């Protein structure tokens, strides 16, 4: 049943891109192969009359995505995190894609709140305003709690938004399969994984309980951070389609003139934005992945306030160490060490030449460091880095791409507050502090203690696990009639080593 619908959606998408002039820009930005270009024009040009005109005042790609609706707008925003897929220039255009849509009726929002929370709105809130912000997935109302008078922000999902998104996501999967068939080279960029990532992000945003949990976890992690704040979560007034947070007064960070007029030190604020992001990413492995000006406020006392927790990033401890070593290697201009880290982490195939890779990295870094501080750009560095890693066969890593993209956004926010900020000088103390704690002798001792605890906990089970593995291997070898003693010897050696460690612990 979905086949005809998906084909029609694909045709209408191509027609809209053709009609708005976006098709050529997208194909060139992605350096699409001839087969994909022909298919795109076939889907676009003959059916251009089916396309949506959109707002002629907008740039072509922004105009096309906005015309196609909420799912396409959100997809464009997600693609802005993947410059490896769409190219740096197009990613930068998509980053400023606005998902402001007309608000839906306040009475409908109140009905949703009453249904979700099980009480009439008047019993919960003494005041409930018209929408103060409306986006593609939800809109926000300012309200006051009836019992305490506290001001809160109430986020409410759009009616039937889940069904609308699911229809378009099905069409996106269909399009990704078509792209993989027409352009086998695109499989390195894993189009299906890109759609899967998009679906995961959107499904998270369509269940406001998950965003509420993200806000709560982020608030816990950052509770002791100086001059940084996450609004308090009101769990009792939150559900799948409604989220209630503390209302925090402050100036939008994007209104730089108002921020300066209020007496805030914009240089300090720019540094705070950058160091806060790096600290959260490296220290906690959990960071706000949509830290643009619209999601940041500055309170009267200079505290930075984060908003909107629909897109959060998470990286494990090992990846954080790798990322820190890559960053500090560039900061110290130690390109050979940066190359070694890529090989040690398995990011670059082992059959490539580490010295050649280091030389290519030097060609990336040195021009950047030769610039004036106001022209040093993380975006430019990452653009060059993507080119180099692709040439050396590095596979796309979604978690690092999101982290790097957020770094570019944060750089833009910091530079809007202070055009002369030196990104490297601000980042260096944070990265070096993390490395001192996590990649030095202290970290080694901590890792050994952690490993010893694991061995002590699971040590008694090792003989049975080893016996089961050896029996399974013997059975397999007997079936295949190709005996081999090496795996058994290696396994027995590992068990012996672990037994020795357990003996030491005892």
Walkthrough of the structure:
The chain has three domains: 2-100 and 162-204, no CATH class; 250-439, no CATH class; 455-505. The strands form three sheets. It has a four-stranded antiparallel β-sheet with strand order 1-2-3-5. Strands 4-9-8-6 form a four-stranded mixed β-sheet. By secondary structure, the protein is of the alpha+beta class. The protein is built from 23 helices and ten strands. The chain has helices spanning 2-20, 22-29, 34-44, 60-68, 70-79, 83-86, 88-95, 106-117, 121-124, 161-182, 191-205, 208-221, 256-261, 266-284, 317-331, 335-344, 354-369, 378-391, 398-417, 423-438, 441-458, 462-480, 486-505; strands at 125-134, 138-145, 151-157, 228-229, 242-246, 251-252, 286-288, 296-298, 304-306, 312-314. Helices cover 61% and strands 9% of the residues. Mean pLDDT is 81; it is low at 491-506. Helix 1 (2-20) packs across helix 10 (161-182), helix 2 (22-29) packs across helix 4 (60-68) and helix 4 (60-68) crosses helix 5 (70-79). The chain is globular and about 70 Å long.
Q: Please report the distance between the alpha carbons of the first and last residues.
A: 64 Å
The total of beta strands comes to: 10
Strand arrangement across the biggest beta sheet:
1-2-3-5
Largest sheet, if any? 4 strands, antiparallel
State mean pLDDT (0 to 100 scale): 81
Low-confidence stretches: 491-506
- When the domains are counted, the total is 3
Task: Using the alpha-carbon principal axes, give the shape.
Answer: globular
């Amino acid at each position: 049943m979905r086949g005809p619908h998906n084909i029609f959606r694909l045709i209408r998408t191509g027609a809209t891109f053709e009609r708005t002039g976006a098709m050529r820009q997208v194909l060139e930005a992605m350096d699409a192969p001839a087969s994909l270009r022909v298919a795109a024009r076939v889907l676009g040009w003959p059916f251009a009359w089916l396309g949506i005109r959109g707002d002629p005042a907008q740039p072509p790609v922004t105009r096309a995505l906005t015309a196609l609706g909420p799912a396409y707008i959100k997809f464009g925003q997600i693609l802005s995190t993947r410059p490896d897929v769409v190219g740096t220039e197009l990613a930068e255009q998509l980053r400023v894609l606005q998902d402001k849509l007309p608000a839906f009726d306040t009475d409908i929002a109140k009905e949703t709140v009453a249904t979700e929370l099980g009480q009439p709105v008047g019993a919960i809130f003494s005041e409930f305003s018209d929408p103060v912000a409306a986006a593609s997935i939800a809109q926000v109302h300012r309200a006051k709690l009836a019992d305490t008078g506290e001001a809160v922000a109430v986020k409410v999902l759009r009616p039937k938004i889940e069904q609308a998104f699911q229809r378009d996501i099905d069409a996106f999967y269909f399009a990704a399969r078509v792209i993989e068939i027409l352009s086998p080279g695109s499989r390195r960029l894993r189009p299906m994984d890109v759609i899967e990532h998009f679906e995961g992000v959107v499904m998270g945003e369509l269940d406001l309980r998950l965003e509420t949990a993200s806000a709560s976890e982020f608030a816990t992690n950052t509770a002791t951070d100086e001059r940084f704040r996450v609004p308090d979560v009101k769990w009792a007034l939150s559900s799948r389609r409604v989220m209630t947070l503390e209302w925090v007064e402050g100036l939008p960070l994007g209104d730089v003139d108002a921020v300066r007029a209020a007496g805030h030190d914009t240089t300090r604020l720019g540094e705070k934005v950058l160091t806060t992001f790096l600290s959260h990413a490296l220290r906690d492995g959990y960071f706000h992945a949509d830290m643009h000006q619209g999601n940041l406020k500055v309170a009267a006392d200079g505290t930075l306030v984060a908003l909107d927790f629909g897109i959060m990033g998470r990286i494990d401890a090992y990846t954080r160490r790798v990322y820190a070593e890559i960053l500090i290697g560039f900061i110290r201009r130690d390109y050979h060490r940066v190359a070694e880290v890529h090989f040690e982490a398995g990011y670059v195939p082992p059959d490539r030449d580490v010295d050649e890779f280091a030389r290519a990295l030097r060609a990336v870094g040195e021009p950047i460091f030769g610039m004036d501080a106001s022209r040093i750009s993380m975006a430019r560095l990452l653009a060059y880095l993507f080119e180099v890693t692709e040439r050396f066969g590095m596979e796309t890593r979604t978690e690092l791409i999101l982290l790097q993209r957020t770094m570019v956004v944060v750089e833009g926010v910091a530079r809007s507050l202070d055009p002369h900020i030196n990104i490297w000088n601000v980042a260096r103390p944070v990265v070096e502090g993390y490395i001192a704690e996590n990649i030095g002798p202290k970290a080694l001792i901590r890792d050994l203690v952690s490993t010893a605890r694991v061995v002590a906990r699971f040590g008694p089970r090792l003989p049975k696990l080893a016996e089961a593995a050896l029996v399974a291997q013997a059975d397999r070898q007997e079936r295949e009639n190709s005996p081999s003693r090496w795996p058994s010897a290696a396994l027995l050696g590992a068990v012996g080593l672990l037994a020795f460690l357990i003996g030491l612990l005892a």
